[in-house]
Request: fold
Amino acid sequence: MGIQDRSGAALRRLVDEGVLTEAQRDAVAKALVAERTKPESPGKLLAEIAAYIGAGLVFGALALLLISSWGDLQRTGRVVIFGLVSAGLALGAITLAGGVSALFARSAVPAGSRVRLATVLFALASGSVAVTVGSAIDGGNIDDAWVYACLAGLAVAVLGYLALPSVIGLLVAAWYSVVLVPGVLDEVFGVEEVWIGLGLLALGAIWFALTRIGVVVETWAGYLIAVLISAAGVVTVYVDAERAGFVLAVMVAVVCFALHATQRSAVLMIGGAAMIALAVGLAVAHWFDGAVGAMVAILLIGTVVLALGAWLLTRQPKSST
Reply:
């Protein structure tokens, strides 16, 4: 549930408790909307643009250093450089957020330009920490240094997200998780493709659960990540086990619809429908070898179901809210 949704729910609760009248609730809601949509001053906007350009230059410099000068630096030099960069990025993010006391206030995370920039710095810090850890153990007696590097980056990304929830922080954490699960299963354990797909499905289930219990503040983004990861897992399983692939797609769709019944989300509804479409497509490819007649029949059935659903919606009474 986003900040706007939580504000509306809180105002509705105050009305139900008799603290506010309906008119007062509407006035407060309009004031909140006006405050959120109030344009920023030109000077503040230019300062934010300059700060983001600086963050982009830092990211570009780190990327160029990795690409062009990696072999010229000793391991100790890499650890020191990226360690200092990581500390600087983290301290900058904390300062912009308003100090340590302003972190982890998940119930009321401000959406100002300073906080937005702080979330970007936390995201950059996760990458810098990953490089620092990878550099520290690369060339030693530990194989697969990238695993530990990604684990460190994931830990920092999760910590940064818990401190200042944001979509970019969520996407960075999701990226690390998607890299780690199939990478570890494939390169470390050397399992078959079907187990990598099941691992992705398990990861998708974790994202579904974290979003549902409220760990993920931006529910739409959390559910979108869960659906996409689950879809990747279904397709991966289908490569080695075709029948299991479309059965799992249906199961993911059921999860989406079940969650939608308890927590209304357009992402869940669209994701469930997309998974049903994926399941049907995989079934057609398996049983009918992509026959045109079967696909036309599915198109006709889908059209009928769509028309029926639309007709039923028009027959429902309009909600008073």
The longest helix spans residues 42-68. The mean pLDDT is 80.
